[in-house]
Amino acid sequence: MTNVVLMNLKGLALPEENITVSIGGSVERAVKGEYSINVKAILTEAWQHTLQSRMYINIALLLVTVFGMIVSFITSSFFGGIERVIEDPQLLQLINVIVTIAVWPFMAGIEMMGVYHAVNKPTKSKMVLSFLHRGSWVALCALLTSLLISIGFQLLIIPGVLLAVLLSLTIPLVVEKNLTPVQAIALSVKALRFKIMPLLAIYSVLFLALISLAFPIALLIESSLAPLAVMVFLFGLSYLAPWYYNIKGVLYREIFGIYSEVKSTDTALSHSTNKDSDHNGSDDTFSA
Hints:
The protein has helices spanning 2-11, 27-30, 39-78, 82-87, 89-118, 135-155, 157-166, 170-176, 181-192, 196-220, 226-256, 264-279, and strands spanning 18-23, 258-263. The protein is globular. The relative contact order is 0.18. By secondary structure, the protein is mainly α. The two termini are 29 Å apart.
């Protein structure tokens, strides 16, 4: 009987219109701690996304890195050259601020690539240009989070690490939820504090992976095999960097939810399919 209904529904000429739905968690539940983080499941899902989409993230990262180097070189030349900047801590700090302001509006696109992958949306490297309309807010948020994390590390290492984890999802909140930097920082801290240990476990895996990739360079830096070690590091980084952003995307979906547009006919079919699954006793919960 259900199959007949589905066949009839597919045959109807229903008007198509885009409907915005929220996939995953929600802000309301997040601030109450009403969400769960399965460390293994998140790492595994993000790795699958990485195998499918790492090329676009890597190209985007390369473009943004080159742009950041150009901005750094031009700004350093204006202040008397790279040597002078390195010798003056205040100038070096100023250069870092300028590069942050210039680069992060484009980095927001890379952050959102991970978010899009979490809901199975296709991405392209040109997404680095897609969120420049929020660029001023993104740059300000990046500066504030960097400042808070730096203060945490100057006080003690542990507060810096905790702040880095608690503030790790602020940029998507600014872009996807249209929050101000202060609102995004406050919301991120309120929500992520409930699951600090699973989050630390996830970011620890990433950190250990980075150390493992850098270890051969440190070991062989003065030998003839140094170029080979660098090549191995770069190859591993081409997987690790996209994995990092995909992990953040999956975390963001599970904690705050992601707004996504679907067609009204797709929504109707989805509801019918879910009812059929419930009738058969199976679970058809969305899984990105």
